[in-house]
Hints:
The chain is 31% helix and 19% strand. By secondary structure, it is an alpha/beta fold. It has one domain (6-143): Aldolase class I (TIM Barrel), CATH 3.20.20.70. Strands 1-2-3-4 form a 4-stranded parallel beta sheet, covered by helices on one side. The protein has a two-stranded antiparallel ribbon with strand order 5-6. Strand 2 (48-53), helix 3 (61-71) and strand 3 (77-82) form a beta-alpha-beta unit. The longest helix has 15 residues, at 29-43. The termini are far apart. Residues 129-136 and 140-144 have low confidence and may be disordered.
Amino acid sequence: xxxxxxxxxxxxxxxxxxxxxxxxxxxxxxxxxxxxxxxxxxxxxxxxxxxxxxxxxxxxxxxxxxxxxxxxxxxxxxxxxxxxxxxxxxxxxxxxxxxxxxxxxxxxxxxxxxxxxxxxxxxxxxxxxxxxxxxxxxxxxxxx
Length: 144
């Protein structure tokens, strides 16, 4: 089996991407698109753009349209994943009607689109929930 490329995009507008992924400032979206085009031309494989849909952060119709515009620049697949918050998290899950509007906008574009089902949220093992957390045990702090 040959390797495939998946990129954690999470926003197709530079300002939003910079807020969600501060390290993304090092590689602007235009440069990322050029690199993805290079990859596609060399391998003839469409990269997958992973897009975690975060309530109120990157889930608007404007965000969806930006994703469609970006996807028209490079042959790709898009994998949308609903964000799963955890206690104390700064972000929220997207509202179901917002998800529906976002997906309707993106589905109109000519690319492969998948939507990952939510699984594991009940045990804090869903996408976005596998974060380090600490609990106090007596005087010591233990990572779990």
